[in-house]
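Service request form, structural biology core

Requester: graduate student, group of Dr. S.
Request type: structure prediction, single chain
Budget code: on file
Notes: please return the result as structure tokens.

Sequence provided:
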Amino acid sequence: MKDMCAFWNEYDSIAGHVCYCELAAFNRPVNPQFLMAIGCTPDKRKDCLKSMELAVGAGVIPEELPALQPVPAPMSPPVLTCDPPQEIAKTVVGTAQKKTALAAPALVMLAILAGAYIALGAVMFTIITNDLAIYIGDGLSRLVGGVTFSIGLILVILGGAELFTGNNLLAAGYLEKKVSGRQVLSNWFWVYIFNFVGALVVVILFFFSGIWQANDGSIAVRIIDIASAKTSLTWSEALFRGILCNWLVCLAVWIALAGKDAISKILAIMIPITAFVAAGFEHSIANMFFIPMGLLVKNAEFAQALVSPTVMQGITWQAFFFSNLIPVTIGNIIGGVLFVAVAYWTCYLRPNLPKSLILNGRT
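Core staff response, request fulfilled:
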């Protein structure tokens, strides 16, 4: 019997030969699955019981032993899919400290990349929408154009780059006294300049690629129409469209910081960006591509044969800077700083906020 089970014991005593099962003799609870695994079948248990009765006069090996209850796993805390607004505000301040501490070479390269990424989004917008309105109408064409343009900010956020309009959120770090006004202004100045450089790099590459001549010149016509519409705005129109634009752009950056994964961040970016593009608001860095591209294309013989001189005559460097870029830039600063950075800092980080106004991280 000894070889049949690891729990079976035999020995010779003064009273004679003794044999017994440890599990039965000491009434140890065992999981039925365990008994089956070691070969302790009901028939074998009956044989063991008979041997124990003969050897020690008693022995109970139950036909079915109660199953051991599984130990419940400890409850894990719920996984947050995004940070609450108060945490986003703290993240924005921390990001401001990191951005203002960037070394000059890194800042310059990241700013050039951001300008190029936004320009690439503008390239996609131009190509996709060059004749789309004919098939799906103006409204849906704007919607699709907004989705395609959002690739620019997606690349900036996920790829890592320094964008002037998004960096208007550095004002929150200044209000929190974590960065100085000089640091903020220095960052804005250099990022703005090299965003322009990055956008112009894409303008040159796209122009010499010749892609703008595709689709029987309709892309070239679209480029000129966009540039003409932007340089024809009044100063006040450009200003207020710039305010509305960067309100949404900075909101896109703000809520993207709340996301815990790439998909969440992409969706957070796409929705506000699609809204501003579809509405026709003005983005200073995007216009660093749209209008210089129009200036190059309008001087090409290929485009001059397609577009009326009346449409092209308003597209000039002077109109670009004074009728569009300056008021749009001012508007972008107001929209990003006042309506996002200052507004949310006031709600979630302002010192001495009455406790009666705070409830679960919301005011």
